[in-house]
Specification:
Distance between the termini: 96 Å
Shape: globular
Order of helices and strands: HEEEEEEEHEHHEEHEHHHHEHHEEH
Helix content: 25-40%
CATH superfamily of the largest domain: P-loop containing nucleotide triphosphate hydrolases
Number of strands: 14
CATH class of the largest domain: Alpha Beta
CATH topology of the largest domain: Rossmann fold
Strand order of the largest sheet: 8-10-7-11-12
Radius of gyration: 29 Å
Number of helices: 12
């Protein structure tokens, strides 16, 4: 009798273990069955007047951070990002899934951010305990994302890929990524993230201007499209190509830094590329770079003179390359950005860029904060973010003799450069 009871209890336990998950699942379905939900896409999209509007669900409220500003990462879908850009690449599309959206009202708020009130309706909701399948209405405030996710200026209903009105032409390893990182947060700037190398690579240039335009981010008529490729600065054929294909009114931005530090950073960068190519058995193309075991061996010849033919050195002779650019563009159309000043006070540099590009005033000191771990400035608005960790790589140790040799070598070129552009740079005081 006892054995029979044990057998029965054991059997009941097994049945309960099977039934319990089913009961829990059924309860969950019942509690959430008040309304049939549309397909669960990563985000829901609405288009109007050539703009694309993103939100996480049909009933989502206006997306804002603590300062009332919009952040790109909240609404972009990973699968629909340009591989080199944080800007959406989709054309305007209708709302996803089985939701209809009725546009009711437009108005511009005091913050100059265009908003739209949208009424969302379910086409065929299955509402529990209701005798009819009448549409259930919900109302939500939607934020218009100005092409690349930032609301500013007056409402503009044109959204397209445009050729850049401003180019970051260099200098390599002087902070071109940092300048675009900061400037790109301005609502009137549509930054092209990633280097295109259209004007300096013949294989790209031969693809034509339309190919180049299609690589640009979406922008409105009131926005500046900015693209940067540091090799534009040193490639002899680029100034003429830019003048021919873009405009004589194109604004140019040149970031300069201490030539010795730049050369060492370039050595670190090129050494990593060389190491990667060696590991992958990739044949290294002919290059103006002479990368050896140490930095000193790469830039100093056996007789003790500087190897000026090495691109590590020649790229840092700024005056040689600027003279070429000034043959095509006047001094007033080139902003010479002091990388040392940007490290110390990015706010001042961004304010100068606003004036140079004739942009609406946007930046304040509250837009920047210093990262206590790295010592470098980051963006505080519209949300806190810093440059990627692969920036500001550590430099190898270089003996003082090599450093002194290079400083003495660059000194006359630096003075000539400062005189030519009529500007003193903080990095010259180091």
């Amino acid at each position: 009798m006892l054995d029979s009871n044990r057998f029965t209890l054991s059997k009941c336990r097994k049945i309960l273990l099977v039934l319990l998950p089913c009961v829990v699942f059924a309860s969950f379905v019942y509690l959430n069955s008040g309304e049939t939900k549309p397909r669960q896409n990563p985000s829901w999209r609405v288009s109007h007047a050539g703009l694309t509007l993103f939100t996480k669900s049909p009933s989502a409220v206006t997306w804002r951070d603590g300062d009332g500003e919009v952040t790109d990462e909240w609404w972009l879908q990973e699968s629909e990002r340009d591989s080199h850009s944080v800007n959406p690449v989709l054309p305007p599309i209708d709302v996803s899934g089985n939701t209809n959206v009725t546009m009711k009202e437009f108005h511009v708020s005091a913050s100059l951010e265009t908003r739209i009130e949208a009424e969302t309706r379910q086409e065929k909701p299955a509402v529990k305990n209701e005798s009819t399948a009448a549409s259930k209405t919900r109302t939500a405030n939607w934020k218009i994302m100005r092409c690349h996710g930032r609301g500013h200026n007056e409402f503009v209903n044109s959204c397209a890929r445009r050729l850049p009105q401003a180019l970051g032409i260099g200098v390599k390893k002087c902070g071109t990524g940092a300048f675009l990182f900061f400037l790109g947060s301005h609502p009137s700037i549509a930054p092209r993230i990633g280097e295109v190398h259209f004007f300096d690579k013949s294989t790209n240039y031969e693809k034509g201007l339309e190919w180049y335009r299609k690589l640009m981010p979406f922008s409105t008529k009131n926005q500046f499209t900015v693209e940067k490729s540091p090799k534009y600065f040193v490639a002899p054929e680029v100034p003429q190509r830019v003048l021919d294909d873009l405009s004589s009114k194109t604004k140019l931005i040149l970031v300069t830094c201490d030539p010795v530090s730049r050369s060492i950073s370039d050595y670190v960068h090129e050494s990593l590329i060389k190491s990667y190519q060696r590991r992958r058995n990739i044949t290294r193309k002919a290059s103006a770079y002479d990368i050896r075991t140490t930095f000193s061996d790469s830039v100093i010849k056996p007789d003790g003179s500087v190897n000026a033919e090495n691109a590590l050195i020649s790229t840092s002779i700024y005056v040689n390359h600027v003279q070429r650019w000034l043959q095509y563009y006047p001094r007033k159309q080139i902003y010479f950005l002091d990388a040392e000043l940007m490290k110390r006070d990015p706010y001042q540099v961004m304010r100068e860029l606003e004036e140079f590009l004739d942009l609406p005033s946007y930046f304040t000191r509250q837009h920047f904060f210093r990262n206590k771990k790295t010592g470098y400035f980051c963006l505080a608005k519209p949300r806190e973010r810093c440059l990627p960790k692969n920036k500001n790589r550590r430099h190898p140790s270089v003996d003082e003799k090599t450093l002194d040799t290079l400083r003495n070598f660059y000194a006359p070129f630096n003075r000539e450069f400062a005189k030519l552009v009529n500007k003193h740079f903080l990095w010259m005081d180091k």
